Amino acid sequence: MKDKLRVGDYMTGKVVTVSPEDTVMDVIKLTRQTGHDGFPVTSDGKVEGYISSLDMLLCESDEQVKSVMSRNIIVAHPQMEINEVARVIFRLGVSKLPVVDDTGRLVGIITNSDVIRSQIERADPQKVWKLKKTLETVHNIEITVTRGDVNIQELVPTQSKIFADELEGRIYELKKGLAEPIIVIHKPDRWMLADGHHRVVAAKRLGIEKIDAYILEIPKDIKLGMEKTARESGLRTVDDIVVMDFEKHPLIEITERLMMRDRKSLEEIERKSAESE
């Protein structure tokens, strides 16, 4: 069973890079296009340095990246624990680290946002393995777990509604390449969406046809409780999920309620203080 959160589970695999032969102006244009404040510098797939907005200050626009970039950079490995990376990022005061494999080739990038996400996301590897163990115990079967892209239109949802405010957050994450994988159960005849309904709807709204997923492969057709619930709720495709535009996520409602209570308490204290004067 996996019990450690690894860089490979949370890093962004699609990384925008620049070449040592590019110019500072090339990087500035790329910064405007992507909104990123820095890029790994690669040659033949291997990391040679990193160039940030600070590196380009006071530089001529026609200077080449190789004469401006930082060469002494810290990198991460896909098998590093998230907690180790968190310590490095915190101590160095950086916002991201390139991720390289055993040969030094760039395979991703891990950011402070990814580290935070690893602590709060719902579809982390530990949840996948807990679900796997539960299904194996209940149904007396052996399940394998793989990682790959799944077709959104083939997914049968198991949650009837999602919240508009959280959906907006998932759309933002997808645009920034920060969204975590969903969890899918694959039976011989169907794909059940176990976790990640907000992310799937967000992807569909953005015109994305496939999405990264942890896939629990069930070798035979067994009857799942979530499958029965989906059928009784009339859920057949992602399009059947209702977006609650006028209902906030419970956690946000609780937060706002607590804030309102604290504000009223403060106002009461100020009122009593004024009366005593």
TrEMBL record:
A Pfam family that the UniProt record links to this protein: CBS
Enzyme Commission number(s) from the entry: 1.1.1.205
Enzyme category, top tier: oxidoreductase
GO biological process, one term: methionine biosynthetic process
SUPFAM superfamilies: CBS-domain pair, ParB/Sulfiredoxin
All residue ranges annotated as the CBS domain in the record: 11-67, 69-125
CDD domains for this protein: CBS_pair_ParBc_assoc
Keyword annotations from UniProtKB, A to Z: Amino-acid biosynthesis, CBS domain, Methionine biosynthesis, Oxidoreductase
Keyword Oxidoreductase attached: yes
Gene3D superfamilies registered for this protein in UniProt: CBS-domain (3.10.580.10), Conserved hypothetical protein from pyrococcus furiosus pfu- 392566-001, ParB domain (3.90.1530.10)
GO MF annotations, alphabetized: IMP dehydrogenase activity
Record's protein name: Inosine-5\'-monophosphate dehydrogenase
Originating organism: Methanocella arvoryzae (strain DSM 22066 / NBRC 105507 / MRE50)
